[in-house]
Amino acid sequence: MNHPPRVVKDAVIHRDGGFCILALNRCQGEATTTDHRANRQAGGSRILNHPANLIAACAICNGDKADAGAIVLHDLEERGLYIRPGATHAATLQRAIATPVMDLAGDLWLLVDAHTRTPYERES
Ligand SMILES: [Zn+2]
User: Fold this and answer.
1) Cα(124) to centroid of ligand 1, in Å?
2) Distance 70 CA to ligand 1 centre (A)
3) 72 C-alpha vs ligand 1 centroid, how far in Å?
4) Separation of CA 25 and ligand 1 centre (Å)
5) Domain parsing of the chain, residue ranges
6) Is the pTM of this model over 0.90?
7) How far apart are CA 27 and CA 52, in angstroms?
8) Is the pLDDT of residue 43 over 90?
9) pLDDT tens digits along 74-99
10) Second label for 42, Cα 20 to 30 Å away, from 57, 66, 87, 89?
11) Half-sphere exposure of 87 (CA within 13 A, CB side)
12) How many angstroms is it from 32 CA to the middle of ligand 1?
């Protein structure tokens, strides 16, 4: 398994404000790791280690998301925190880049790289 480098994880946690964005039932609050919005498949691809596919998470939510059922995944998908797999890893990554993430305050962000996120303007 190729995990994102620690330096990338730390940058993503800082980018996202230091708190777990998943905020599932057992959330610990402080983010200590990163979660893949689109899960890497078996034999996974490094392309899905792109920072736009990573969000700040606590270890508990990171594990709980992996075991989550349809209702929880639907909620996470609504917040841009779960991305369904596309036909290819590249297509999946493009979907992640184009899908805004909702933070704990309800604001939407497009994830650019490990250090940058830009406000997403809702269409009115
Ligand atoms: Zn959490």
Assistant:
1) 31
2) 18
3) 13
4) 8
5) 6-118
6) yes
7) 22
8) no
9) 999 999 999 999 999 999 999 999 99
10) 57
11) 0
12) 9
